[in-house]
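Q: Second attempt. The first request was missing the SMILES, so the protein and flavin-adenine dinucleotide are both included now.
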Amino acid sequence: MARKTTPRVAIIGAGPAGLMAAEVLSAQHIEVHVFEQKPSAARKFLMAGKTGLNISHAEDIETFIARYDQSAWLEPWIRQWDAAWIKAWMQDLGIESYVGSSGRIFPMEMKAAPLLRAWLKRLVEHQVEFHYRHQVLSLEDNALKIQNLRSNEIESLNFDAIVLACGAVSWSQLGSDGQWQQWLQPHSIEPFQASNAGVERAWSTFMQPMFGEPLKRVEAWVKGEPKSSGDIVISHYGLESGLIYKQGRALRRLLKQQQPMQLYLDLLPDISVEQLTEKLKSAKKQSLSNIWRKAGLDQVKASLVREMVEKSIWNDADTLAQRIKNLCVDLQGFRPIEEAISCAGGIKQEALNENLRIKSNPYVFCCGEMLDWDAPTGGYLLTACFATGRAAAEGVHQFLMQK
Ligand SMILES: Cc1cc2nc3c(=O)[nH]c(=O)nc-3n(C[C@H](O)[C@H](O)[C@H](O)COP(=O)(O)OP(=O)(O)OC[C@H]3O[C@@H](n4cnc5c(N)ncnc54)[C@H](O)[C@@H]3O)c2cc1C
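A: Got both inputs this time. The predicted holo structure:
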């Protein structure tokens, strides 16, 4: 039997996941209210666009899906709303995109602001009601207690369904403060951990001139795990870069197993250990700096070798070559979660049904970074936020149709 009244849905959070849910629901002529505690929408999305909004990735879909831990869970949604879909969706909003040399997809203008402007305009045209500076304080069944942060008034409102799109816990000044964790049963949440974050290592003062400098074209790995290659930046706190982020999952596993957090580096992956040994042996009369430079160690790599390899073996070509190609860096941990680009952990798959509805509360659906999946940088984070936002909204739609 057809419903007589228009159903009313609340979306908590105006980040990319919440906005995508709003898009799907408003197209179904559902009354959509978005509550956002910040004075404006998608602040983290805008921050992501500051250095170039990497919105997705053009690699083949199987490789793409394998980038996620929890990939089997996300797979159907990522397949449905993949990189090609995102490009077409942006184009529909008047935003052209391009594929960079690494396969990463960016809007032509690089920034997130034009895309967000066009998107919000369309959502408003579709009658989505935005309530900025409205903070949800609690959730019980289908009732929300909401505080208007301008007037401090608190009201309780009931909805036909609720979508949580509150984000994880990093960069909390942009809105994702994790307060929502109090609303759910603790066992339904995998504790959050920093992901796509720098790692800490205490350097001696000798390394100070190298802070901010890159170790170019190195390989990095955790013992027994796959290698990845790229650049690593030496920073005052340790090491940082996309290559470090790629090793994050394996490093977190070490921590979980209470093993030493050790990252191995090959500083010269383009030559074999035998070739390197020959180069280090070849010119005995030259200064050590010259020999190392000619062997391929630039100033940053040479500094790292001086920092990490005992002086007693600097002149032992065989042993030194082994160390340069297999340099074990002891790490002290990840940078604080607050600084992380994303978070591992969140609402567990087993706490949700196949429509991203919370099993213990039939009115509530969840999406975006608050779910327990993770991926490296490369556009995978936003792709999954969009896809789960759409999936949760479709779940809501189905639920409302059955009522
Ligand atoms: C510096 C940086 C760069 C990044 N670059 C990229 C990139 O290039 N590519 C990529 O794929 N990803 C990138 N990311 C990650 C990406 O931005 C996030 O994964 C994404 O924004 C998460 O979307 P979300 O909608 O799940 O949550 P969020 O974007 O965190 O949005 C959640 C929203 O919910 C609101 N909220 C929370 N609690 C409440 C409440 N109680 N009441 C009302 N409102 C509430 C928050 O204020 C917030 O606006 C980057 C992240 C950072 C920090």
